[in-house]
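Working notes for the structural subgroup meeting. M.R. asked for a predicted model of this chain before we commit to crystallization trials. I am recording the input and output together here so anyone reviewing the notebook later can reproduce the run.

Input as submitted:
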Amino acid sequence: MTIDTVMAIAKETMETTIIIMGPLLGVAMVIGLFIGILQAITNIHEQTLAFFPKVFAVVAVFLFCLPWMLQMLISFTQRLFLDFLKYS
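Returned structure, recorded in token form:
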């Protein structure tokens, strides 16, 4: 296995990670921005007000996207094992 192969595998791993985590991070950012604006408007600065809606939204999106995430991970793992078999 050459250094180019290892770098290609590392690149694909990072891309897959970013694609899979994108929806979760995006929802957390949007909810955090919305709660931040709401707190600035109302002058309520309660820590739990920002924490719980983000947790519930991220869990909901995680459960909604779970089949797609698992399919992406299974596909990536199969390609990874096939590459290992090809180069060993």
